[in-house]
């Protein structure tokens, strides 16, 4: 039995360079950091001058789209850290465009991209997403590109958002064999009667499905997670190639996530978890709400031509019969594709993202 150790790739010397973009170095150029003379920290640094945290953040005004990064050439985004007030987790929209494509490959509410779809903090300790106190959002999804990358944040809300961020990337390298990271968000609120919630539909090309995040709001009493998650690959039509056995099973749990004597029990692991369990407070929070993720890192789902993914919402009714539910389900689906854009649903809007 071998003892796990550091990845040997860390020791491999490669002809790439590391760059990092933040409000202190907005274009990531060599020697470009800590040069600001104006910014959100200027007043606090008035006795210190340039080089002393003059521009640690940006203010994204209502209706404004701020460019986080606009990179030319080939490379890969290796880490994205960001933080802002929880009020903005469901009013900001994160987008990423690869290789000059006018259509975004990533178009997701800021909070949902980092598994925080309910505007409330929960600790997440996973392989590709980490959420730390209080609202330190980290993504380690590799995001390769061949000729350019542009990432933006749109403020759909009515108040300014102060955003701190740092985006680290490598320049150079051969990415001809890499897929482009895509992330799509969809919400059913409420879900139509006896109709699955669709995570992806009409995705065309070759690639692999690598992750699911669900922000699930329960609109009825009783257990809600009997529904199956299905993946329709390539020529599948009526019947899927991959069909799970229940919602909690797909996320690596069992028996209703119910630890005897404790009830719903949150957990966070490298590849899957339910880090968020929000219980009614008897005043304004009336429904139970859950946040769940599964990252298909050791088990990506490969497809050659097309992909569709959906999940049922099922509870129980008297007599041991399934009860179709009309819950509030918001999904973020992550996948790599051989092209920089594909068919997607409507863009997230303020009303569509609103937490109610």
Percent of residues in helical segments?
under 10%
C-alpha-based Rg, rounded: 21 Å
Discrete helix count = 3
CA distance, first residue to last residue: 51 Å
CATH architecture title of the largest domain: Sandwich
Extended strand count: 27
The pLDDT mean sits at 96
| Shape designation | globular
InterPro entries: DUF2961
Organism: Microlunatus capsulatus
Protein name: DUF2961 domain-containing protein
Biased composition (Low complexity): 35-46
Structure overview:
It comes from Microlunatus capsulatus. A hairpin with a 7-residue loop joins β5 (92-98) and β6. The termini are far apart. 3% of the residues lie in helices and 42% in strands. The protein is mostly beta strands and 356 residues long. The mean pLDDT is 96. The chain folds into 2 domains: 16-171, Protein of unknown function DUF2961 (Jelly Rolls, Sandwich); 180-350, Sandwich (Jelly Rolls), CATH 2.60.120.
Quick overview of this protein structure:
The chain has 356 residues and is mainly beta. Helix content is 3%, strand content 42%.
Which properties best describe this structure?
single chain; 356 residues; mainly beta; Jelly Rolls; 2 domains; eleven-stranded mixed beta sheet; 3 helices; globular
Topology at a glance:
Elements: E1 17-21, E2 58-60, E3 65-72, E4 75-83, E5 92-98, E6 106-109, H1 110-113, E7 124-125, E8 129-132, E9 136-139, E10 143-145, E11 148-155, E12 161-171, E13 180-188, E14 197-204, E15 207-217, E16 229-233, E17 242-243, H2 247-250, E18 258-259, E19 263-264, E20 267-268, E21 272-278, E22 289-295, E23 301-303, E24 306-311, E25 314-317, E26 321-324, E27 328-337, H3 350-353
Parallel strand pairs: 6-13
Antiparallel strand pairs: 1-12, 2-12, 3-11, 4-9, 4-10, 4-12, 5-6, 5-11, 7-8, 8-9, 13-27, 14-24, 15-22, 15-23, 15-27, 16-17, 16-24, 18-19, 20-21, 21-22, 25-26
